[in-house]
Write a structure and sequence with these properties.
homotetramer; alpha+beta; four-stranded antiparallel β-sheet; 14 strands; about 35% strand
């Protein structure tokens, strides 16, 4: 299915402010970026680099005054996510090197403190995939998904105590639980068609059965039509915009996801 | 200056054919890709990866029959290339690690055989930058630039003997001469505004004075308005399309570069 | 100065246990590994890989029963660490790409919560280097260095509240404070000559004035004779041995650092 | 089997000379470096880095006068190389990204010119592995292995014409033939037990059946007891020592490989 995504950000900069942005999705195994635009108003010089997770990052210094960023993309993406109830646990010694980092605790995923809870949650499961299903459904049932309820990340243990959170919070707790039983897990930030209210979204992936699988504890039923923008250990690594200093005010943010009725010419 | 580039390729595939493409320019220090499109007709799954030189490469299997690729980009690029007649020779021990590979001989740049010629050519020069100017002008004067005169690369020594070549050939000889006197040098493939006849173009860069500088031995006077698509040691590394097997026929290729009169909105 | 380091670990494995080890120091700008040994008893197959921080990591599965690891190295290292009271703050937009990750909060360094404290601590300082001196001395004065006081890491905020910690804890708090004012900072684990009681040690580095500088809040006066084994954002990334599962018991650990009286032959 | 390798190099430097060395084997899937020494006389500062092929490279500036390098290693290595007559051809679209570079022509392996010969040589073969056996045996039969017959590399086409060469030359021709039929192939430089006369050695590997396999056209029967020091596309990438300038004279080189009778303690 072809999707058109867009993200518009308006800032009021009180001082010139360095920004690191992650707003350019990459073509990869699961998505093909056919068209793309990335506009800065006013235009300022930008340097793009690739971080250690493979994300394309844009560095710039936003000038004083109004500053806007508009990105859009037309993307081929799958209608449904892949599911494999039999996907097996990959022994640590057989994990690809690049996957090992997703076993470690991180800023918002204190997996080192959650093993007892995780073991309890996954006890009915047969396969590693099913263990993740247990975790995903447990988070879905026990943490109330409340879009807009927080503006900055809290960590997995905080989410568990609070019992409520935004998409990122539910993903963080799920990730921490998966890692605590040695299942590699990472945060994904991106677009999801039909999200309501529309916004940027966060979900998680796990490495079982020799590949990454998608999960989303905010949804009662998982579906595709997703466009990943960035991957990381948690929200500390994946920031759609990361400003340095206190000189910026985000005055407006507008996110859209539309189906494109026809395949691109 | 804003430039719009496009490249259109039509193939007639007699068997299904694996392709590796390098047709997606990256945003970097010297160019910002504001809009971009990349269309395959018919659409087939594509996997994009980054090679060791940082180029974005697209892998796909083209199906039997007609197959077309259309890419375009709107790019902010400089009108003029930077020049610094005083840029100094960087001692080997001080070169950045990533630059060292550009000192080595490569498939079409037998720098190990050209040191005597290079030393002769650069003898009037004061700085390393000026040494490259000597090489660039020597190639410009001694190798006749004949667009369309060859369809596959010949190596630097062959170019010297033949006394004639396409843009890639002049670049290869220049690169080999630079490397033979320990100046790191790399091939660039991309677009050049006002090239006549219009086509994809190749030129070279050298690392002197702590950064890369652009040279183009096909031109009597160097200017900017260039969009780099890919970098490499020579044409063996940088192939706009690299087919495997003999099942493809390129039936049409159309390259365009236009100035965009106004800055993008 | 030539130093000989060694680390000996004895385990009693109750089940076969995957281990990831970081016990092979790399030769680099500040240290040259002239001799090295790495012995496993019993010998089991090992795969070595390089993580995203450049550390050499060894993966193996330790068998049931007694398992020992013995590593030693003869290393050229500086007597004194470099100091530059004038080293300047590097603007975010000018930081090397590989350094940016050391600005982000991480598992044990909640830099996102510590900016007010940091700004207060560094207020007397002129240069970025001096800001780090203020932080380093503040931690030295306010957090009691108590070797052996904890077996697992606590995070920077916890250290601040507890007012006491092991070397790693003092480093974590220092790192979090530095990052909270946009000074890149990383954890180093390694050997320090004359440490008392002798053990593996942890300290931190900051990126100011265009390079990394060494600090050690556990010491009243910083000196060299250090051998870095591994670098990372914090202790979550840098584990001398990381076991998966609960089947291992570390029964003995012996660390030694000696001066080698003569230069190696 | 445990092997002890050593390489001793004596130079007489007429000017101070930058060197890039590849003399530190890495622990990997097929070899474990248990002990190692690397001595420079006189000692000079060294910086070690990892090149794009994963080789550890040492950079230094050798001073005027006598300069010696002595390296040794105790290595666990297999007695026999793995063989799989059924190992299949990996379709281009399924090759790992890091393998693709080994399909390209390179300085001494003009695979773009050798496809007709290769197709003729491999015609009896059933599997990709057997195709490589055909190439390996064809080179073994048609190119006379003459250790010491050349001091600098010639390219695959030159080797074919000359009908004679050193280990590196036979490997280059084999590699070029393999690549010309889309089998990824790379040069290995290292140690081989029982080589006569003893020297550093070169052989090649091919990627078939989803992994790398070892071949050695200089030997009538392949066996193991090899220690790889460095990998690359060809000898242009893999130079045990690469000097810049003309100021060095290698006055002595001594290579040894011994079996260690007992397993290391």
């Amino acid at each position: 299915m072809w999707i058109k995504t867009s993200c518009h950000l308006d800032f009021q900069m009180q001082t010139s402010t360095p920004l690191v942005l992650m707003l350019r999705p990459r073509s990869g195994f699961q998505q093909w970026i056919a068209k793309e635009s990335y506009t800065l108003t006013p235009y300022v010089p930008v340097v793009e680099y690739t971080d250690t997770y493979g994300n394309l990052c844009q560095r710039l210094v936003a000038p004083v005054g109004e500053f806007s960023i508009h990105t859009s993309a037309e993307v081929m993406t799958a209608d449904e996510v892949d599911i494999d109830r039999n996907a097996y646990f990959v022994e640590i010694q057989n994990l690809p090197e690049a996957v090992l980092v997703y076993l470690l605790p991180s800023r918002y995923c204190e997996s080192d403190n959650l093993a007892y809870l995780a073991l309890d949650i996954v006890s009915p499961a047969q396969s590693a995939y099913d263990q993740v299903v247990c975790i995903d459904r447990w988070v879905n049932s026990n943490i109330k998904y409340t879009p807009g309820s927080s503006n900055f990340p809290i960590s997995a243990e905080g989410v568990k105590m609070k019992g409520e959170g935004v998409c990122r919070d539910l993903a963080h707790l799920s990730i921490a639980l998966c890692r605590s039983i040695s299942i590699p897990s990472r945060l994904v930030v991106g677009y999801l068609y039909d999200l309501n209210p529309m916004d940027l979204h966060a979900w998680f992936e796990v490495y079982v059965g020799g590949r990454w699988y998608t999960f989303d504890p905010t949804q009662n039923e998982i579906h595709g039509r997703r466009v990943a923008i960035a991957y990381g250990r948690d929200a500390a690594d994946v920031s759609i915009f990361h400003q340095f200093g206190a000189g910026d005010i985000l005055t407006n943010m507008d996110v859209r996801v539309e189906l494109l009725s026809d395949m691109l010419p």
